[in-house]
Design brief:
The chain is mainly beta. 11% of the residues lie in helices and 35% in strands. The chain contains 4 helices and 20 strands. It has helices spanning 239-244, 256-275, 359-366, 376-383, and strands spanning 2-3, 6-16, 28-39, 47-56, 63-70, 78-86, 92-100, 105-113, 116-124, 162-165, 170-174, 179-187, 225-228, 251-254, 278-287, 301-302, 307-308, 312-321, 335-342, 356-357. Strand 10 (162-165) and strand 11 (170-174) form a beta hairpin. Mean pLDDT is 93; it is low at 128-134. The chain binds manganese (II) ion (MN) (2 copies). One manganese (II) ion (MN) is lined by residues 363, 369-372, 379, 383.
Length: 392
């Protein structure tokens, strides 16, 4: 059945136009028994609100019904909001509020009672760019909201797990390795703007005295890029924000085909998710020793042994529709993408999604506890799951 919004499937339901059908205009949908009406198409910009007008058909008894939605083209359905009781013979409007991004379709299910008329289903996009009157304005949130994976501290004697809050991101510095153990940051459009990439690689003089401070020349002619953990493009609202990402404490020795191809492709995908109305919490780092850069062979260290060359780089991204109280909104169905890729020049024989793994596997490889601010029961579900969602 084609309605003004698109094609809907009517199951134990029909288009009614009699005097007993409650309607705006000449027709409405009449659902009988435990019938349902289902969208046969996706809205592609998520949904922030659905309104539905409903009334009792003729002199039938009251009925109950609910709104379900699917983000996988109808494979699985989830109820949103509460079950509604319709007892009026004039149309009333019920509003459902939700916050999803990407593809979504809806289904109205009649549950009990007499025949039900529904009409005027209105779906409001969740574009993430404002303008919809929604309360989902992106903000800059806590870079460490998910937790402190290694229990890093600001004690200067804690040289291999030294916590540095850069405002734009937070990291744990490892003096023995000459680079970060991990870097953690929040990504939303509130961090985005039009500042130019500064390419202003700078030694981090905020490291305590006695610490190794990498310089840009430490990476010269090593066969490895100065690879950002927190990407330049995730922080371009201002020149100051962007320059912060070029501190050498945010740099790691990455094989060029990793940094510039496969790793970057996942960075870009994360920003695609951001642009679709999401905010992300991202943690990244390297582990192991021995990478293979553009000079070939295996390189264990650069800078005369002061900088460890990781054998692998990993990243964990937790994706939420833009909103508030983020950690409390993480459920067992929250999308989490974990990747772990070798630091080699052949890494780009596969696309980034080939390297998807579990958070558990990265916890085992690194010894860290990720998502520690999330309940252990939710962690155990999320961390044992390999993402199989869209990849572009
Ligand atoms: Mn938020
Ligand atoms: Mn964990």
């Amino acid at each position: 059945m084609t309605l003004s919004t698109g094609v809907w499937d009517l199951n134990d339901a029909l288009i009614g136009g009699t005097t007993s059908d409650r309607k705006n205009g000449s027709k409405s949908v009449r659902i009988e028994n435990t019938g349902m009406v289902t969208m046969q198409f996706d809205k592609t910009s998520g949904a922030s609100q659905v309104t539905i007008a409903h009334g009792v058909y003729g002199t039938d008894a009251s009925s109950t019904w609910g709104l379900w939605y699917s983000t996988n083209s109808g494979s699985t359905w989830t109820q949103t909001g509460s079950t509604v009781t319709t007892s009026s013979t004039t149309l009333n409007t019920t509003t459902f509020t939700l916050s999803t991004s990407g593809n979504i379709r809806f289904q109205v299910r009649k549950l009990t009672g007499g025949r039900l008329n529904i009409d005027d289903i209105t779906i409001t996009d969740n574009s993430g760019t404002g303008g919809g009157g929604s309360d989902t304005t992106p903000t800059r949130d806590d870079n460490m909201a998910l937790g402190n994976p290694s229990g890093a501290t600001t004690s200067t004697s804690n040289m291999n797990n030294y916590l540095m809050d850069k405002v734009q991101y937070t990291l744990s510095y490892n003096n023995s390795k000459g680079m970060a153990n991990w870097c953690s940051w929040h990504l939303s459009t509130a961090w985005k703007g039009s500042a130019a990439r500064c390419n202003c690689f700078t030694s981090d003089v905020s490291l305590p005295s006695g610490y190794f401070r990498a310089t840009t020349s430490n990476y010269t002619s090593t066969g490895f890029d100065r690879g950002h953990l927190c990407p330049s493009e995730d922080r371009d609202a201002s020149d100051t924000d962007n320059a912060k990402t070029f501190l050498m404490t945010n740099m790691t020795p990455q094989a060029p085909n990793m940094n510039e191809v496969t790793w970057e492709a996942f960075e870009t995908y994360c920003r695609t998710l951001m642009s679709a109305g999401n905010e992300l919490y991202i943690i990244a780092g390297g582990y192991g020793t021995g990478g293979s850069g553009s000079s070939g062979g295996t390189t264990n260290t650069i800078a005369s042994g002061s900088i460890n060359v990781p054998s692998h780089f990993w990243k964990i991204a937790v994706i939420l529709p833009v909103g508030t109280n983020d950690v409390s909104r993480i459920t067992t169905s929250t999308r989490v993408i974990a990747i772990d890729m070798p630091n080699t020049q052949t890494v780009n024989t596969h696309t980034w999604d080939y390297y998807r793994t579990t958070v558990d596997a990265i916890e085992t490889a690194t010894g860290y506890d990720f998502l520690s601010n999330v309940s252990t029961s939710i962690q155990s579900t999320l961390e044992s799951h390999v993402d199989a969602g869209p990849t572009h």
